[in-house]
Amino acid sequence: MSNPTATAEHTEPLTAEDKQLVRPPLVLNERTMGWISTYISSIVEGKTPTWWYASMAFTVPLTLVCLALLAYLISTGVGVWGNNHPVGWAWDITNFVFWIGIGHAGTLISAILFLTRQKWRTSINRAAEAMTLFAVVCAGIYPALHVGRVWMAWFLAPVPNANAIWQNFRSPLLWDVFAVSTYFTVSVLFWYTGLIPDLATLRDRCKTKIRKFIYGVLALGWRGGNRQWRHYEMAYLILAGLSTPLVLSVHSVVSFDFATSVVPGWHTTIFPPYFVAGAIFGGFAMVLTIMIPACAIYKPLHDLVTVNHVDKMCKIILLTGSIVGYAYLMELFIAWYGANPYERAAFWYRAFGPYWWAYWSMMFCNVIAPQFFWFKFFRTHLVWVWIIVQFPNAGMWFERFVIIATTLARDFTPSAWGMFHPTWVDVCTFVGTFGLFGTLFLLFIRYLPMICMFEVKAVLPEADPHHGEAHH
Amino acid sequence: MNAVGNTSAPVYGIAAEFQCARDLYHAAEKIRDAGFQKWDVFSPFPIHGMDEAMGMKRSILGKLVFIGGLTGFLTAVTMEFGTSSFLYPLIVAGKPTNLFTVPAFFPVMFELTILLSAFTAVFGMLILNGLPRLNHELFNWDRFKLVTEDKFFVAIEANDPKFSSRSVSDFLESLGGTNITTIHGD
What we know:
heterodimer; A: 472 residues; mainly alpha; Formate dehydrogenase/DMSO reductase fold; 16 helices; B: 186 residues; 45% helix; elongated
């Protein structure tokens, strides 16, 4: 009975039917559990590399620019931004929707792919969830600051006040407050819950007293007993189940900010699914933008984040990009078919009005560029992948700019038309948020395990309690 | 047999090391069949099917989360109708302030249901697990640090009704456990 097709997972000979069921390994080069802990922890434990300082030297000043300009905005007023009649929402809300959309891929990877048993997610979910948090931090700046008098922002919270007036719970702007704050809170809880066993790994490997204290406190005394794991796994499953409708609701609620208005170009029922698909599209592009360089620096990570992972993410980008492209075309069709002259005009001005360049940039970046991912060559060559995903990154920003600025610049009466021009404060604040995002991500890479160690160990073949036994 | 911790302190239990998930799984089945109550298996990752191998029921966390979610939902209902229908009815665009306005109240109800469910899931899990707890008798054993890396352990506690140090250590050895150690408190 010597059959050459016996594999590590199935030591007994395989029938032709079995052979089709054997999946490619999720972790390459037969890495062991010990290697996974040692390598991932060594990134955190080793000496701070030079590239890290070099990157921080770039991102920290940008962060400071962002913070300084926010201080300037608060001390002077929102007039330092270019928002004015008729474009009252401009770069602020564009950037808000841009950043919050990026966050959605992290939740998709951690929650939806978990519920659908996509085990390949284990090696990318930690970094993607971190990206979610940092993107939501960047997003949160804009709605909080665009209210003008920031010290009055507490009016958003339903607390008794001297005027005895309460919030308008029928307003999508208030829904947004609840949706985004819930999203951030639940994302933090989900991320931290996932970190606990890995923080325990770091705690148990610590050499110095200070590190032992910090990681010891953060790990909350995790011992890895099955009496803990069973509640832990249940909590993780429930959080995934909660995050799945949550992530779909957040971008739907964001789209309600537009869709519940009567402005032509915004008042459409297609917005919620189209926003959600766009968010996942842009978010996966950002995950790849970050993970490809991270794995290029830490080369052994290619055994965990394999080309197969990149290939799958590219396919998701292709799928969601095509959904977005379909939505763009459907919007145009409905604008024509709906026979509303204002709606038709709105879309005419998007494509051929003063912001035509933004519309066609959006079309090229979001609809044309991802079509390269039909070809396996472009999905599996990391340099090409990295170049191509820059188009969705930029395109999704253009999409939000097109939706917001072109619509407001050309509404019902020509006497109310006007253009939006960003100020230097607009531009530098936005660039500064990338610095903030980068700084937070670099801190994360340096001080926390970038890959979810315990979950990767659990997808190794030897993690199966029946590994090596005859299967039935 | 080795002993760790303060040997004059009371014994917490006896622990043994295993080398792989499969051995731990079969050891758990045998400990369960031997009728022990106060014991646990420790692993670097959750092992599929271990709950059955240990004879444990499904976690009750789901039920707690249902209560938490219901609390969130009722909070939103009270907050929205309480303020918008009773305390200060605010008529915007001629929309109703009575029950007919419920579709517009739905998003906040949904978000608060999710929020309180998530809080219950995380903090409920920590409470059920007795965490945060920064010290534990098992941490006195240096080898136990490998549980978060690639080793597997079994610990039978001294307050188990069937516990006796001689028989338990022999039993663990018969299951294939190595480095059998008595764990004392501090």
